[in-house]
Amino acid sequence: MQKKALLVCICVYNDNGLRQGGNMHSRDLIKDLKKQGCYFVRHGKGDHQIWYSPKTGKKFVVPHPKKEVAIGTLRSIQKSAGLL
After folding, report:
1. Confidence of residue 5 (pLDDT cuts 50, 70, 90)
2. 12-80 has which CATH code?
3. What distances in angstroms separate CA 37 from CA 33, 40, 62, 66, one per listed residue?
4. Which of 34-38, 57-61, 68-72 has the lowest average pLDDT?
5. Could you tell me which residues come within 8 angstroms of residue 41 by beta carbon, excluding any fewer than 6 positions away?
6. Measured between alpha carbons, how far is residue 79 from residues 71, 82, 83 in Å?
7. Which of 18, 23, 24, 42 lies most in the core, judged by the most C-beta atoms within 10 Å?
8. What does 21-66 look like in DSSP terms, one character per residue?
9. Taking the CA atoms of the chain, what radius of gyration do you get in angstroms?
10. Phi, psi of 75 (to 5 degrees)
């Protein structure tokens, strides 16, 4: 008899309608950043992009393309962008 695993993802959204908690695909993160007024500045080293948030006046690095951005990296980016 084969065992099957069930993967459940619980997504929590904040007041801005942005996803929080758990890992996020970099493509979805970039969509959220654009929705909040952040914009692409330039390419960084390797697969990294430099973005700017007019809300905080900070530049920050977004790894792209990346299937999943780790939770600590995601929270750091959201904090720099003024989304948290």
Report:
1. very low
2. 3.30.920.30
3. 7, 10, 15, 22
4. 68-72
5. 49, 50, 51, 52, 59
6. 12, 5, 6
7. 24
8. SS-B-HHHHHHHHHHTT-EEEEE-STTEEEEEETTTTEEEEEE-S-
9. 15
10. -65, -35
Domain ranges of the chain: 12-80
What are 10-37's pLDDT values in tens digits?
A: 455 555 555 555 678 999 999 999 999 9
The two structure tokens encoding residue 83: 């989304």
Structure tokens at 75: 């929270």
Confidence grade of residue 66 (pLDDT, cut at 50, 70, 90): confident
Residue keyed to tokens 């600590």:
72
